[in-house]
Please model this.
Amino acid sequence: MTDIYQNDQPFLQNIFPYLIAEMDRYYGINNPFNGGKVIEREHIYSAQTPKKQMKVLITTFWDYPFIGGLQNYITSLKTGLENLGHSVDVIAPNHFPSDEMEALRDYFSKKFTYFFTERYGSCNDKILHNISKLYSYYTMLENMNLAQYDIIHAQDRYTANVMGVLNHALQKPLLFTPHGFMTHNRLKFNLIEKGSVEEIYFSAIDKQAIKYANQIIILCDVFRPILMDIGASENKMTTVYTGIEFGGGTIKKESKNKTVITCVARLRPRKGHKYLFKALARLKDKLENVEVRIVGDGEMKKKLKKLVRKLKLKNVSFLGSREDIPELLSESDIFVLPTTSDTLPISIIEAMLSNQAILTTNCGGIPEIIKNHYSGLIVEPANSKQLAEKLLFLLENKTARSELASNAKEFAFQHLTVSKMSQKIEVIYQSLL
Model:
């Protein structure tokens, strides 16, 4: 059991000196912390690198295993690489003894509360919570044999920072995959105030993650300009679309006279369910033989059910969280995801592999895998009028539905499977050895 939080141990707040240095500049400290020089890692691909079996470490700042897109991605990548003959370990904070992690977080929280209050006259709760977790995770990882790994692949900006510091001595190839738009997104949705110390602190984490990484594997091209704005170079980024394993269901539709519309998404504000319901309300007289299935659960459940009652939509069913998504999609004709903010939703890839006619929005990387009027239909986010028009087109044109679905399925099998994703990432790993 680590004894860093014992009273006779010195408190070192310089594990991540660049974070304190940025906050010092924000608060106007006369003698700011020396952030230290970080060598930005560069790499030139070598096509002649011989293939070898690798031992890979995948790191995440969030619990694993758990339910969610990031965790599913990690599982898929681990499985795909192991199928190629490589050894893969995953490390997450919940893999360490909970009592030790809790004690460490409590120790660092108390120490940084005092440090920030003495240095700046105040202590920001979000920063305190984050930096306490960073230091706790670092402390536990520091005692691991990280030298045994050939490749380290951080799945978020926080572990990219932690592994970047630990990798000073190891000099292992370090990769970073952002699964969201980081501080950029928090500012966009007013989760962080522009010009605040929180923006300064979390932006420093973003920038440092990029500096520490030999290569950044991005989920879709929409990440490129955002990452370039904070220092990433074009030759440091490689796009590898998320791949999934998704078996089609064997259950067939009960009635060929009924058209089934399915939406699979968490019931959250940004998934845009209300715009789908408002679109359906515009088409009430066209929905006689239509069934709408809402699959998923979340904090918006009560509000959305209330909206459905208010709009008198009698053909909408809330199915809750389900484990039989392949079977449900095998019964479906049209897949709708009216999201207002997303990167590359797994549910769309599932729909593509399930031979669905897809109607979705111009968000994130969606237009990179769904070509409008070829492999699906795309409307602008939060536009129920456009959604209604395109939905009516799909309801009235069975041939168009079939063509869109076929094109989407072909693209997905060519580019969006675990096998394809793992092979592409394997090439990147090999080139870094």
